[in-house]
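User:
Care to share a sequence and structure tokens?

Assistant:
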Amino acid sequence: ISILNHFPTAGARVDLRRLSTVTQSVLTEINQTQQAVAQIQQQATTHLGTDLETDLETNQAAPAAFADLTAPGPHRWQMQSFNQLRLPTDLYLPEALPAGVTSPLVVISHGLGGDRTNFAYVAKHLASYGFAVAVVEHPGSDANQINALFSGQTSQGIKPDEVIRRPTDIQALLDELEAMVSDSADSNLRGRVNLQQVGVLGQSLGAYTALALAGATVHLDTLAQACPLETSHFINLSLLVQCSILKLPQPLPPLSDRRVKAAIAINSIDSAVFGPAGMADITLPTMLISGSADTIAPALVEQIRPFTWLKSRDRYLLMMKHGTHFSTIDEPKEPDDSPSSRSAIPVPLRVIGPDVEAAKNYVKAMSVALFKTYLLGDSAYSPYLNQTYATALSQSDLPIYLLQDFTLQN
């Protein structure tokens, strides 16, 4: 209505046939997503009775009572900002680790229009469990870039090569951190961080970044088939970002990094840019976290189907029923003047969805469980990666379902 009020002519013509096509596509997508979520719920509930049997078969007995992985861990931590690196970075380091013990590194990548504050809550939580955490900021797709678009200072919401520079910038950042850790002049970092055991966690465009670093490969043929500007763009806005790769010079540089050993992708965008073959190239432990009410990266297209393309043995799908694209993003209440506390793009409460604190707790708990299991090799955390623990963690307004395998029925 606001657009129509400011339209430069006395009237506007509406293509009702086109509008009807778009509406029908949206309704079909909603119905198919609801059916898929119901299948996930059914399969996850069925697995409840087999979780204990599986744990016993693999000699991973479930604890008599689950610990609360949403509560802070035993370690104090300190944060240091590095704005002179390839990417502006806040590094969280746990304190008082035993002599000779180094912390695996987790890199956190924000989504389009975000910044370092969005997932600082995850960084603090993981640091309290003994992980070093680097929360990066991507200048070509951060809040400043979107603010510049809204204010007319730029015509681009994202720089054309940003989808490639994101993973390659993190590769370069890991190189820089390796040099700092081995530099005898830097006593604060020397010997404290393990750069050969790296986890990546990202949301939306950051989830794409995490999957690329974990080994997903770009398949231009699949991308080209999905990218003509048709009705699909109205029901899957993430294609507007994915299709931008076709405009870049070819061949693309390698996007994966051998140091990455595990990945968590929240609200990932991957269906066209990677496709079935590209997702199958991931061999690392990987968790996809999805929200059934995601209108930016629709759950069925961008997370549920892509999960079925994963071939790695250790793969997980965490579905948040009623979760949205913004459920897990932290909105700083009162930004301060520090470089790591800029105002991100505000999101209306009705778009964020129900029980944000529950969504954040899910990410905190599952990130501890996954990275403890696969970066530290601590088998005591394996039983937390199943529906039994997900049920204990689940909240009624935002229930969760966790699967290691899923067959999508037509």
User: Anything to note?
Assistant: The longest helix spans residues 16-48. The radius of gyration is 21 Å. The first strand starts at residue 77 and ends at 82. Residues 327 and 356 are 5 Å apart (CA to CA).
